[in-house]
Specification:
The protein has ten helices and four strands. The two termini are 14 Å apart. The chain has a single domain, classed as Alpha/alpha barrel (Glycosyltransferase), CATH 1.50.10. The longest helix has 23 residues. The radius of gyration is 20 Å and the shape is globular. The strands form two sheets. Strands 1-4 form a two-stranded parallel sheet. It has a two-stranded antiparallel sheet with strand order 2-3. The chain has 313 residues and is mostly helical.
């Protein structure tokens, strides 16, 4: 199924709110998985011959896509530099997030946080994550609108977001997640935080189309590839990256999903081949039982949600 058919309008405000109503990380992927399971189609639009027994999804979703993209045209880029947290050990260009299930300890409120499995702390810092989700919805929707209409306004606005996030020295995000999923008083960042950048997968898939539109110059395309090259290098060589790679649940799968997609964008054949082998020889044997279940996910709170998330990934 075409990647750009998944996006619905979200909150119109360019500044994520504390009680933001955008999709969660798992909702984002699960909804895409159900859509893909319902309609296993390829090559339906933009230059391919329609098949009589397959629905024309571009035609069906045209109104929805353009409605979302028209709203996004009025929203300026918002990157990690727009928000900060006093609990972050990084700088203004470093992505920061906190572990969902970690809370202040009532007997020691100023001390290290304690874990409450399955219970998200609403006071944890989430602004960078929300900004990343926002990017992952807007860029693909704007790109899809350009594909449908060839109206350069859409492509130009999508390109503006990419330049802000990855190229502009004043607003870019550094290519690592060293300070993601931090736990106050325990650690300044963990490998589990790498799951936050699953939202960049759909962004990367948009870039070749934006290159085709002419909204990104050759030097800018090289700059984007350099950013994702650097991020993959961190993902594959850092302590946090290696820990996430070896996770035997949806975290390890999300690490692999990202590396495989970023490797395809940057034409890194070595990592592409590594991703293929690892999925076949490690991910499937270690995570999927003969009956199709995901035993590692049955060990956590909200195991049903975790299983659905693994399936979608």
């Amino acid at each position: 199924m075409k990647w750009w058919l998944r996006y619905l309008p979200v909150a119109a405000s360019p500044i994520p709110r504390k009680r933001w109503t955008s999709p969660t990380r798992r909702e984002f992927c699960v909804s895409a998985a159900f859509a893909a399971a319902a309609l296993r189609v390829t090559g339906l639009a933009f230059g391919t011959e329609p098949k009589p027994d397959i629905p024309d999804l571009a035609k069906m979703d045209r109104e929805r896509i353009l409605r979302a993209a028209d709203g996004y045209l009025h929203e300026l880029p918002v990157t990690v530099t727009a928000f900060s947290s006093p609990r972050s050990a990084g700088g203004p260009h470093d992505y920061f997030s906190e572990g969902d299930y970690w809370w202040p300890d009532p007997p020691n409120p100023s001390g290290p946080y304690v874990r409450r499995d399955g219970m998200s702390n609403p006071d944890n810092f989430t602004a960078h994550r929300h900004a990343l989700i926002r990017l992952s919805l807007q860029v693909p929707a704007l790109t899809a609108a350009w594909l449908l209409t060839r109206d350069t306004r859409y492509a130009a606005h999508a390109a503006k977001h990419l330049r802000a996030w990855f190229l502009d020295p004043a607003t870019l995000m550094r290519p690592n997640l060293q300070y993601s999923q931090a736990i106050h008083g325990v650690t300044t960042g963990r490998g589990t935080g790498i799951i936050d950048t699953i939202h960049l997968v759909e962004v990367v898939r948009s870039i070749p189309f934006l290159e085709e539109s002419g909204s990104l110059s050759p030097p800018q395309i090289r700059g984007l590839r350099a950013w994702f090259d650097a991020y993959m290098d961190w993902m594959t060589t850092s302590k946090n990256g290696k820990e996430e790679r070896d996770a035997k649940n949806n975290h390890g799968t999300c690490w692999l999903m990202q590396v495989s997609e970023f490797a395809a964008f940057t034409a890194n054949r070595e990592l592409t081949e590594f991703s293929r082998r690892r999925f076949k020889e490690v991910q499937v044997p270690e995570q999927i039982a003969a009956n199709g279940s995901f035993p590692p996910e049955s060990l956590v709170a909200r195991s049903r949600t975790a299983t659905a998330f693994s399936t979608s990934t």
